[in-house]
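Box S1 | Example of a co-folding query
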Amino acid sequence: MKSAAPVSAAAVLPGAPFVAYRDGRLTLEDVPLHELAQAHGTPLFVYSRAAMLAALAAYQRGLAGRDALICYALKANSTLAVLRVFADAGCGFDIVSGGELERVLVAGGAPGKIVFSGIGKTRDEIRRALDVGIRCFNVESLAELDVLSEVAQACGQTARISIRVNPNVDARTHPYISTGLKGNKFGIAHEQALAAYRHAARLPGLQVVGIDCHIGSQITEVAPYLEAMERVLDLVAAIEATGIAIHHIDLGGGLGIDYAGETPPAADALWPALLARLDARGYGDRALMIEPGRSLVGNAGVCLTEVLYLKPGEQKNFCIVDAAMNDLPRPALYEAFHRIVPLRLAAPDAAAVTYDVVGPVCESGDWIGRDRALAVQPGEHLAVLSAGAYCMSMASNYNTRPRAAEVLVDGREARVVRQREAVQDLWRGETA
Ligand code: LLP
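Box S1 (continued) | Returned holo structure for LLP
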């Protein structure tokens, strides 16, 4: 790739710190994105290594001087090359399945830095996690405590556990991604947590090491975190009064990003606020763990797509692109907003038309953006921004559409880190 001119601050796009127009062409770090679209086809996910490391650095600054482990929640983006970036930077990982465990190991993550969350761990998954020696199971029910103890004993091991408490705090986010309220399926209710710890401490296959909570995702305020932490610390006091030591406190993930002008606190502002409160309550000496996902990768990725057809209508104009809800499921699932911009800036006198940007899938729910003003023609390309989290990791093969390829950008280098799926891959294992 050719070297590009330095980016002026004004050219950088909102919510996409490493995306900028240079000479009218959209770039990620120093790579012109139209070159990638031409070379590798579309839809194409492109991620910036520098953006991921910058997001991680904000957490590292916020937690500086503490005994803290940042466990990247790979459900946000579990592509091996992305995991490798975080493993190389010393991160641990928050997993929620046996599949995620194997991904972390293949990518070179340290088993001793893995925490295993999730409400439905199977015995096989538990055995494998014990075998490789993960750091901690984040347990979500009384029944799971019993199974975990039984499986650990049968393997001649002791499982280190933390109980995920449900602090009944409103994260004030989309109902589907709010997890810390009483009506949610997650964690053990605050009122039952003490009894659960007592039970865990008596089980022969378990060793209590910590406490955890996670109240939701795309959180844009400090207050819900503070509230949750206060409730968790109340419990730590009550648990320790019974003689059970809590060595680490895991406050989950959930920090939001700028998709549409949201202004979540930066990680290096959030953490000092939380740490001040932790110190004030006398728990500043505890080891800390966190499980961020979206805020580490969300704004580091874009999805490139080609305009296939323009379809003017009486009520709506449609801009039909080659990416769809199977590639970018967030609008269909949560009515989520992603900015959509052209790879080549339109001429100043080009007339913009308001379109719904939609994919080829046979559902009216297959939309990527609504009422977007664009001056585009078929054959031109668009970039869907903030597509680094919960896009590729939630992609499907609906309508027998192969999943997209992925490219990792590092300065001027661009490397394909996942081949586009071949259509034959889609019926592997099937019998006609
Ligand atoms: N830890 C636990 C236990 C979680 O359940 C989650 C996310 C995380 C950490 C990471 O949260 P983050 O920092 O990424 O907010 N598909 C949805 C988001 C689902 C989040 C589920 N849990 C979306 O696209 O908005």
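The chain has a mean pLDDT of 95. Residues 223-241 form the longest helix (19 residues).
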